[in-house]
Amino acid sequence: VQFVESGGGLVQPGGSLRLSCGASGFTFSSYAMRWYRQAPGKERELVAHITNHSGRTDYTDSVKGRFTVSRDNNKNTVYLQMNSLKPEDTAVYYCNTFPPKEGYWGQGTQVTVSS
After folding, report:
1. pLDDT per residue over 26-44, tens digit each?
2. CB < 8 Å & 24+ apart, contacts of 45-53
């Protein structure tokens, strides 16, 4: 099992980024997927959820209306489009299945929102 997150970087407040997470080692289309983030000194928190086939999505309140999660089951990839970024979105972003495959977290991708 492997998750490889990419697409992070340094962006100014109000900017946008699109994160990608490539997954392997399991049947991707059988699992709901989630994006999480962890800011320095804080617990990892759930950001977004997408079901496996219907593509139903849910978001934590702080990102609703700004972030959009999507997936491509043919590419075993889940995406997170982040718009109107705020300094409080600064964190390392991770993806995993739901329920999570503990012990198989990827390296994450750093998102820094700063002027």
Report:
1. 999 999 999 999 999 999 9
2. 47/80, 47/93, 48/80, 49/98, 50/78, 53/29
